[in-house]
Amino acid sequence: MKCKTCDKEFKPKLHAHNIKFCSVTCRNKSYQPARTIWQRERFDRLAIQQDPNKIQCLICGRWYVQVGSHVYNRHDMTAREYREYHNLEVKRGIVPAYYRKLKGDQALENGTYQNLKVGKKFWFKPGDPKAGKYQRSPITMVRLRNLHKLRKPKRLNAI
């Protein structure tokens, strides 16, 4: 018999009727495109609906939990390029607050936050000439100013 996917000759096992593929891999390759099309259509229907728990893509107007992944897969640009183009925070992911908290809790629960401690020796120090220079977005500047105001102790006037 010939495989429907790779045209390789193969001998079916005993008592195996209507076998059309030489292996599980070839069978999966055969069914994969139909499954992908069905899933894509389903996700496209869901992405059209406005949802307060999702973020809207500024290119196509659809709604996603992880806009960066969507932009990379559908619009052929990196998430960083997308954030720079739309003046969003460059160093911060575009995900809803609940999802950011969920992923943070998962990192604490499974211990992956400790990977940050291991990599600390590779962090750039302030003023390091090797550190990447980038223009901060207006949103980032507002967030940093507000953060600075919260941290800055108020001076008491001496009486």
Give the key terms.
mainly alpha, Arc Repressor Mutant, subunit A, two-stranded antiparallel sheet, 6 helices, 2 strands, 3% strand
Describe this structure in words.
The protein is mainly α. Among the domains are: 48 residues, no CATH class; 63 residues, Arc Repressor Mutant, subunit A (Orthogonal Bundle), CATH 1.10.10.1550. The chain is 46% helix and 3% strand. It is built from six helices and two strands. The chain has a two-stranded antiparallel ribbon with strand order 1-2. The chain is elongated, with a radius of gyration of 25 Å. The mean pLDDT is 82.
Brief description of this entry?
This protein is mainly α and 159 residues long.
Note the gap between the termini.
Answer: 98 Å
And the CATH topology of the domain at 50-112?
A: Arc Repressor Mutant, subunit A
Number of strands: 2
Helix run count? 6
Instruction: Examine the secondary-structure arrangement and name the CATH architecture of the domain at 50-112.
Output: Orthogonal Bundle
Estimated radius of gyration: 25 Å
In round numbers, the mean pLDDT is 82
Oligomeric state of shown chains: single chain
- Proportion of residues in helical segments: 40-55%
Global morphology: elongated
Described by strand count, sense and barrel closure, the largest sheet is: 2 strands, antiparallel
Order of helices and strands: HEEHHHHH
Strand order of the largest sheet: 1-2
CATH superfamily of the domain at 50-112: ROS/MUCR transcriptional regulator protein
**What is the CATH level 1 assignment of the domain at 50-112?**
Mainly Alpha
